[in-house]
Specification:
five-stranded parallel β-sheet, Rossmann fold, Elongation Factor Tu (Ef-tu), domain 3, six-stranded antiparallel β-sheet
């Protein structure tokens, strides 16, 4: 994940309190930190693992939970990763890990910021956007939000049931799913990669042009999605991005 430079935050231990499978490759872990922890929707934490020989591996993970709702990290298994295999294969409830944060001050949204807001996520890039959606719900905000979420297949749509449930409420939150390797399951969804036409159609779900757009995913996805937004008429200055991986 790329992030703007942050002041050094102290490391602290956090205990795993809950583990829940989200998709075949993504599992959510809930943590109870040893010290007070307050975050904003869109922020992330650094996680550090230390091997018996002293070797340390670090990884940044966005926080999926809304502010005030604890710390949930939705961790995707990367077979060549140093940290994610530990969580998927070894970690258990009661284990302690080290984390620091919250980190990040650019890619955040608060209910007081208002809307309309357009969110665009690819794969696990939906995680910080989910924190924003959940924050809106907990705050009973009326800010209009549309989320365009791209996944390869239906079974890889992280938080799928929760998102569809929120979409069904018809309270100003609209979900647009696009599957790149399967046919769409819902009449309002897509079966292709994000493009300018999709962004324009997503914006028609908002009462007026978005005041901000947030894009999160791999480098390639973020570049394509930002280009699509600009092609749909969203000024580049209104687009905030967060990139994972290479």
């Amino acid at each position: 994940m790329s992030a703007e430079p942050q002041p050094q935050s102290p490391w602290q231990t956090a205990t795993i309190t809950r583990i829940e499978k989200c998709t075949p490759r993504v599992t959510s872990f809930w943590f109870q930190p040893s010290r007070p922890f307050t975050h904003l929707a869109g922020q992330h934490v650094d996680v550090r693992l230390t091997a018996p020989d002293g070797y340390q591996a670090r990884r940044s993970y966005s926080i999926a939970s809304a502010p005030g709702a604890g710390i949930e990290l939705a961790i995707e298994r990367l077979d060549d990763g140093e940290v994610s295999p530990f969580f998927h294969d070894v970690a258990e409830i009661g284990d302690e890990i080290e984390l620091r944060g919250p980190l990040g001050g650019h890619f955040i949204w608060e209910a007081s910021d208002g809307g309309p807001i357009l969110l665009v996520g690819g794969g696990s890039g939906v995680v910080p956007l989910m924190a924003m959606v959940r924050h809106r719900t907990l705050q009973k905000s009326a800010a209009p939000i549309a989320l365009v979420f791209s996944a390869r297949v239906w079974d890889e749509v992280i938080f799928r049931d929760e998102l569809i449930g929120l979409d069904d409420r018809r309270d100003g939150f609209d979900l647009v799913l696009t599957l790149t390797r399967e046919q769409a399951r819902r009449p309002s969804d897509y079966s292709r990669r994000v493009d300018a036409r999709m962004m324009m159609q997503a914006m028609t779900r908002l009462p007026k042009a978005p005041r901000l757009a947030y894009v999160c995913g791999s480098n390639a996805f973020v570049s394509a999605a930002a280009e699509a937004l600009i092609g749909a008429g969203v000024p580049a200055g209104l687009i905030r991005t967060e990139r994972y991986g290479v």
